[in-house]
Amino acid sequence: MSTAIAVPHIERKPELSGQTVVVIGGSSGIGMETARRASAEGAKLILTGRDSQRLQRAASEVGALSFSAFDATDPALLAQFFHELQTPIDHIMVTAGQPSYGRIIDQEHDQARRALTDRLLLFIEVARNAVHKVKDGGTLVFMGDADSRRPGIGIGIASTVADSLPSLTANLALELAPIRVNLIAAGFVDTELSASLLGDELEKRRNQLRAKLPIRRVIQPADVAALAVHIMSNTAITGATYDIDGGQQYVAV
Question: According to the CATH classification, is domain 20-247 in 3.40.50.720?
Answer without folding.
Answer: yes
